[in-house]
Amino acid sequence: MKKVLALLMALLLVVCAASCGEKKADEKDHLERIKESGKLIIAMEGNWSPWTYHDESGALVGFDTEVAAAIAEKLGVTPEYVEGAWEGLFMGLSNGRYDVIVNGVGITDERKDTYDFSIPYAFNTTVLIVKSDNTEITTLADLKDKVTANSLGSTYEAIAVEAGVDHVETVDTLEETLNLVLNGRVDATLNAKGSFQDYMKAHPDAPLVIVEEVEIEYIGIPVVKGEDNATLIDAINKAIEELRADGTLTEISVKYFGFDITQE
User: Fold this and answer.
1) What is the pLDDT of residues 210-261, one digit of tens each?
2) C-alpha span between 144 and 160 (Å, rounded)
3) Is there a contact between 146 and 188 (Cβ–Cβ < 8 Å)?
4) Cβ atoms within 10 A of the Cβ of 30, count?
5) How, if at all, do strands 100-101 and 39-44 pair?
6) 83-92 burial string, b = 16+ CB within 10 Å, else e?
7) Which of 16, 92, 98, 118 is placed for a possible disulfide with 221 were both Cys, Cβ 3.0 to 4.6 Å?
8) Is 9 exposed, middle or buried (0-12, 13-18, 19+ CB in 10 A)?
9) Tens digit of pLDDT for each residue in 162-210?
10) SS3 41
11) Do the Cβ atoms of 104 and 53 come closer than 8 Å?
């Protein structure tokens, strides 16, 4: 009887192993599912000029918007944009609502614990901005015990906290951030140099200045960490390399920033 039971158990294990192997072989990874659906679902804020924003006609435009579209074309699918507040983008990525985030996302060690990143497609200079009559803040070290403004969960917020600020006022848009600096509700802000320059083109008389270029941030495209996204990351990396080599990234950058942020 024991021999019969042992034989039956062995047979069940063989059948299970075979069926499990067949099921795994039949499973499609994330890139295959994207190609099957025909669309790449892309998360972005939609209110951060010139990265991703709405023009006067209401159309979603911007550097990241066009880069994402170019990558989707390389993958052979259509881009589908979903806009949301910064703090919700990563939650949506983690729960499968989006395929990728393309929104000037800095590659950090903390984020790499949870997400896999593409190679950098842009390099963003983080700057310290104050009101032009502010003589107390000239370097990052001067932020100790001061109040700044930034999006919740942004790398700019993290830099401010590390510098010892007393409080970070959370905001949704760059314009809101800079208005808080202008009306004296906060002492300073950290943000992208290109975004600030874009703001100053529209508001040339705004009494705001850059007092320090803080660091260069590597910008990449995050996906949920895991084997399911290995081929997707490879495909995105290949697309970025091709778009850099043929000058497309540079062309898009100059169109929106006036200079090239895609070369280190």
Assistant:
1) 999 999 999 999 999 999 999 999 999 999 999 999 999 999 999 999 999 9
2) 9
3) yes
4) 21
5) parallel
6) ebebeebbee
7) 118
8) exposed
9) 999 999 999 988 899 999 999 999 999 999 998 899 899 999 999 999 9
10) strand
11) no
| pTM listed for this prediction | 0.79
Q: How far apart, in whole angstroms, are the C-alpha atoms of residue 76 and residue 63?
A: 20
Cβ(247)–Cβ(262) below 8 Å:
no
Please give the angle made by the CA atoms of 118, 123 and 125, to the nearest 5 degrees.
140
- Give the integer Cα–Cα distance in Å for 30 and 221: 15
Of residues 193, 139, 133, the one with CA closest to residue 164: 139
In the block, tokens 């932020």 appear at 143
- Helices 193-202 and 248-257: angle between axes, nearest 10 degrees: 40
CA-to-CA separations, 127 to 9, 56, 197, in angstroms, rounded: 66, 28, 11
Strand, helix or coil at 123?
Answer: strand
User: For tokens 């996302």, what's the residue?
Assistant: 105
Is the sign of the CA dihedral 223, 229, 232, 237 positive or negative? Answer: positive
Max CA separation in the chain (angstroms): 92
Phi, psi of 62 (to 5 degrees): 125, 165
- For each of the domains in the chain, give its residue range(s) and CATH number, in order of start: 30-121+220-257 (3.40.190.10), 124-218 (3.40.190.10)
As a whole number of angstroms, the distance between CA 158 and CA 162 comes to 6
Query: How many other CB atoms are there within 10 angstroms of residue 64's CB atom?
Result: 29
In this predicted model, which residue has the larger pLDDT, 5 or 35? 35
* Cβ-contact 121, 262 below 8 angstroms: yes
Identify the residue whose tokens are 């944009």.
81
